[in-house]
Amino acid sequence: MPVPTCPEDCTTPLAPVKFSDCAPEIILSEIRRIFVAKPNAADFTDVSQATEWTSRISETDVASGDAIRPLTVIADKPAAAAVVKEISNGRRFNIGKDHTLNITIDDVSPENYEFMRVAECGGKFKMWYETAGGFLYGGNEGILVDITLDDVLNRGLDEIETIAGTATWRAKFHPDRVLSPIFNAGVVTPPEEE
User: Fold this and answer.
1) pTM of this prediction?
2) Which parts of the chain sit beneath pLDDT 50?
């Protein structure tokens, strides 16, 4: 995944910025889908191409080691927690950030329940996530994550069963972001603003 090039002389580059008083870019942030694959699934040649996605997304393919499971979720990603280590001579060094996606699945079909149970085996997954604002995060390589899921049964007559959990990883930089080439594929389009 492409990452910024950091100088070795303790200076921080000053990247360009863009602000607008009349037309600021306001982007919806809720994560509405995550995409999960085996950790050794092939990388994308170009994650921004819909044809690469449509050839690999499958809810049922178990023969291909490169299949990607689309999960419809309600999810968020709070600010990552910096992991800073103090080293000799009073220097402090940011060795990475702990990132967490909080995930809720409210469609608890038998297949989705069994997906949760299989995920309890542990191990790593390759993941991408898509927001209601139309962005896809994870780059060509995806993000190597640990996923923890649990069945949640709340009390109350109007409560519904959900699967809730987290996807976590450590990285110094946030994942690469592109406009999702599959934003409206198989999901309801978000309502237009009035």
Assistant:
1) 0.87
2) 187-191, 193-194
